Amino acid sequence: MSPSxxxxxxxxxxxxxxxxxxxxxxxxxxxxxxxxxxLAVALFAxxxxxxxxxxxxxxxxxxxRLCESKPExxxxxxxxxxxxxxxxxxxxxxxxxxRLRLGSYGGLILxxxxxxxxxxxxxxxxxxxxxxxxxxxFIISSVFLFLLGGALAFLTLEKALEFLxxxxxxxxxxxxxxxxxxxxxxxxxxxxxxxxxxxxxxxxLQLVGIVTPEQLISQWRYAILGIVLVAAVITPSxxxxxxxxxxxxxxxxxxxxxxxxxxxxxxxxxxxxxxx
Length: 276
What we know:
By secondary structure, the chain is an all-alpha fold. It is built from twelve helices and no strands.
C-alpha cells in the first residue's frame, strides 16, 4: 500500500485557514481522498454484484406490485402465469453488463457516506475552527437526506411507472429491458438523493457568510422556480409525479435551511456583545 494511504503518514496538516499548501500538496491530498473514495465504491460494488439476484428482486418490486394491482393487459405479454412481469435481455452480453452497471450504481450509492466524508476532509483545512465543528452534523445530515431521497424515489416509482405505461398507448405492449430498467431505478435514487443535498449546501453557504437568510427569503420566488427546473432536469423519468415528489421536499427543505440560517445568525448576534 502506498505510504500516502496509511493512517498517520506524513501529509501537510493545516492548523488554520491562514496556513498555506503548495499546489503539489493540494494535488497529493486530493489524490488520497479520490483513491479512498474509489476503494469504498469498489468494495461496495463487489458486495452488490455478489448479491445481484436479491438486489434485482428489490429493485423490481415496485413494477411487480404495479402489475399485480392492474388488469392483466396493463403490463402486456410480459406477465407470466404467476402474475409476475418479466424483464428481458436483447443482447448476449447484456446480463453481464447489467451486473456491472448495477454494481457501479449500487457501490456509489452505498459508499456515499465515505465519499461525503472524504470531500469534507479535503475542504476542512480551509475552514476556521468554529466552522470545522459542523463537520459531523453536516456528514450525518447529508447521509440522512441522501437516504431519504433514495427512499422517496423508490416509494414513488410505482406511481411513476403507472403514469409512463398509461401514456405509452392502448395498443402498445410493455417489454422492459433489464439494463434500462435498472438504470432508470438507480438514476432515480441517485437523482433524489443528490437533490435533497441542496439544503445542506444552503446551510453551509450561510454559515460561511456567502449568502444570508435575508437574501434567501427575498429571492424565494426565484428559488422555487429554480428548484422546479432542477427537479425537471435531474429526474431521469421526466414524469410529473417524480418531478413533484422531488420538488416539493426540496422546497420544504429550502425553508428549513433558511430557518437554520436565521437561528445561527441570531445566536451569533447574541454572542457578539459578550465577545466585545
